[in-house]
Amino acid sequence: MGSRSRNWESNTAIQEGSPKFAYILAFFSALGGFLFGYDTGVVSGAMLLLKREMNLNALWQELLVSSTVGAAALSALAGGYLNGLFGRKICILLASSIFSFGGIILSIAPNKEVLLFGRLVVGLGIGIASMTVPVYIAEVSPPHLRGQLVTINTLFITGGQFIASVVDGAFSYLSNGGWRYMLGLSAIPAVLQFLGFLFLPESPRWLLQKGRSQQAHQVLMHIRGTENVEEEYDSIKTTIEEEEKESGGGPVLWRILASGPARRALIVGCGLQMFQQLSGINTVMYYSATILQMAGVRDDRMAIWLAAVTAFTNFLFTLVGVWLVERVGRRKLTLGSIIGTSASLFVLAVGFLLSAHASPPVTFHPSDPTFFNSTCTHYGFCEYCMLDPNCGFCYNENGSTILNSSCEHVNPANTEEAASGRCSNTTQESTDAFWAYNYCPTTYSWIVLLGLILYLAFFAPGMGPMPWTVNSEIYPLWARSTGNACSAGVNWICNVLVSLTFLHVAQYLTYYGAFFLYSGLALLSFLFVLGCLPETKGLVLEDIETLFSTRLCTCDTTDGQKVHYVRSNYGTLEAEDRISYISVSSKY
Ligand SMILES: O[C@H]1[C@H](O)[C@@H](O)[C@H](O)[C@@H](O)[C@H]1O
Q1: pLDDT tens, 106-132?
Q2: Per the database record, which ranges form the Major facilitator superfamily (MFS) profile domain (predicted)?
Q3: Regarding beta strands 566-567 and 4-5, do their DSSP bridges make them parallel or antiparallel, or are they unpaired?
C-alpha cells in the first residue's frame, strides 16, 4: 500500500473524454427517478376516480397511498445488499422489471386487493431505484459533471410527478376506468429502461471491487470516450486495494459504524434525507390542491390542472438546481435553499394564521334532523369545523361576504360534498351553496399561495436534489451501497411519518402551527448542514472520504476551495488516523 497523490490538473484527461455517453447513461438510469416520481405522484388523481368506482373507504385510500411508500422504505434498505452482491446494472434491471410488472397489475386489477398488491410491487421498484440510480450515475460520471448528472435524476423525479399530474388531468375526463391508464402507463418508461439497460455497462467501480479488472478498464475507456484512463483506473484500483486491507470483517453496517469517516458520512447522509422530508415537501405538494381551493379555485378539474402547475414549478426549479450545482457547489446551494424554504414555510404559516383569525363564524343552523345528530354542530367558527375530518363548511357568498354558513357532516364516500342538506348533491339548492372541506374561505389566501410558490422555488433547486446527490458521493466504495440504502430508507420512513402525521399535527397545532413547526425544523437543518456538510464539488469519488476524516462541525473550512489531498501511511496508527490531509492548493 503505497502513498498516493492526485492533482487536479491531471483530471483534464478525464474531462477531455466525450461526456455524451455519460449523458446517455444518466438518461436511462434517471428513468428510474421518473418512475419514482410518476408512481408516487399519480395516485392522488387516480384516487379521485378509484374511490368512486371501487367504493373505497378512508382506510383503503390510505392503504393504497402509504403501502407504496412503506414498501419503498423496505426495498431501499434491502437494495444495499442486492447492490453489493449483484451490481448496479442488475439492480436497475430488476427495478425496471418490477415497475413493468406492477404497472401491468395495476392496469388490469379487478378489485381493491389486487390494486393493493400492485401498489406494493411498484413500491418495491421505487425503493431499489431510489438508492441504486444515484449511486450508478455518480460512479460512471466524470468528477466535473457528477453533481449535475446525479441531480438530473431528481429532475426526472419531479418531471415524473409533473407528467403524472398531467396524465391525471387528462384521464379524469374518462368516466369509467380512467385510473387504469393513469396507473398502467408507467409500464412504458419501465420497459424502455429495461431494454436500454440491457445494452449499458456495469459500473467500473463495482467491477473492480469484484476483481473484474479487465472488464472495468474497458468500461472506463468506453464511458470516458478515451483510452487515456490510466490515472483514474489506477486511482480507483489503489483505493479498493487499500480499503480491502484496512477493512475488518463483519457486516458492512457494523464496519461503517466502527470507522470514523464512514460513520460521519452516514450521519450526514441520513440527516440530509431526514431533514428533506421534515421540511414538509410531500405535505406541501399533496396539500397544494387545497391551498389552491382556498385561493378561490372552486372547480375540481381546475384544481387538478392547477396542481399540475405546482408540480411543474417543482420541476422547473429543480432544473435551476441542475444548472447551479456545479457552479455554486452542493453546500452553498443547500444552505441557500434551506434559508428560503424556512422563510417560505413561515409565510405559509402566517397566511394560515391570518386566515384562522379571520375565520368566518357559523351563522346558520339548518332544521334538517340529521344535522342535529352531528358533532359538527358544536363548532362556532369555520377554523374549528375544518380541522375536524368529519365536518365541512357550507355557505353562500355575496361578493366577499359569507352568508348562511353552517358546519355540516361530510359525505364519508365523497369529501367533495356534505352528507345531506344544501351542500350535498341530492338537493336543488346545492348550486348556490359552496362546500369547503379542509379549508375556510378567506381573503388571505394570496399569502398562502405566495408561500407555496416561494417554497417550491427555494426547495426544488437545493433541498430536493442535494440529499440524493450528496449521498451518492460521500461514502467510500465498500460502504456506498449500504450507506445509500440506509439514507434512502430514512428518506422513505420520514416520508411516511410526515404524511401520516400531518393531519393529526394540524388537528393539534392547527395548520399554521404545523407550518411554523416545519419552518423551525428547516432552521434546525440549516445548523446541521452548516456544521456537517463539506463541499464535494469537483472531487474524485475516492478523495471524498477524506473530507470526513475530522470531527463533524469542522467541514466549513474547506468551503469554496478545491483542495489537493495527499494520503500518507503511518503504519501503526488506527485506520482513520493514518490518513493525513495536506492542503497544497486553494487557488480556486
Ligand atoms: O427529492 C425528491 C423531490 O423533491 C420530490 O419532489 C419529493 O416528492 C421527494 O420526496 C424527494 O425525495
Answers
A1: 999 999 999 999 999 999 999 999 999
A2: 25-537
A3: antiparallel
Residue nearest atom 1 of ligand 1, based on CA coordinates = 464
Using CA positions, which residue lies closest to atom 6 of ligand 1? 158
Instruction: Look at residue 274 and tell me whether its pLDDT is greater than 50.
Output: yes
Amino acid letter for position 242: E
Q: Does residue 284 line the site of ligand 1, with CB under 6 A?
A: no
Q: Burial letters for 332-342: b for 16+ Cβ neighbours within 10 Å, e otherwise? A: bbbbbbbebbb
Q: In a 10 Å sphere around its CB, with 0-12 CB exposed, 13-18 middle and 19+ buried, how is residue 319 labelled?
A: middle
Least confident of 88-92, 207-211, 284-288: 284-288
Pocket perturbation via mutation, ligand 1, pick of 281, 456, 468 by most ligand atoms within 8 A of CB: 281
The packing angle between helices 466-474 and 260-278, to 10°, is 170
* Backbone conformation region of residue 363, classed left if phi is above 0, alpha if psi is from -120 to 50, else beta: alpha
First to last CA, the chain: 31
| Residue 130 Cβ contacting ligand 1 at under 6 Å | no
C-alpha cell at 4: 498516493
DSSP 552-581: TT-GGGGTT-----EE---TTS-TTTT---
- Ligand 1: residue of 151, 158, 273 to mutate (most ligand atoms within 8 A of CB) is 158
User: Nearest C-alpha to atom 8 of ligand 1 is from which residue?
Assistant: 282
For 132-187, the pLDDT digits (tens) are 999 999 999 988 899 999 999 999 999 999 999 999 989 988 878 899 999 999 99
Asked if the interface predicted TM-score (ipTM) of this complex is over 0.85, the answer is yes
Cα 394-399-403 angle, rounded to 5 deg: 35
314 lines ligand 1 (CB under 6 A): yes
pTM of the entire structure? 0.84
DSSP state of 365: -
> What distance in Å separates the CA atoms of residue 59 and residue 437, rounded to the nearest whole number?
18
Any idea which residue has 466535473 for its cell? 144
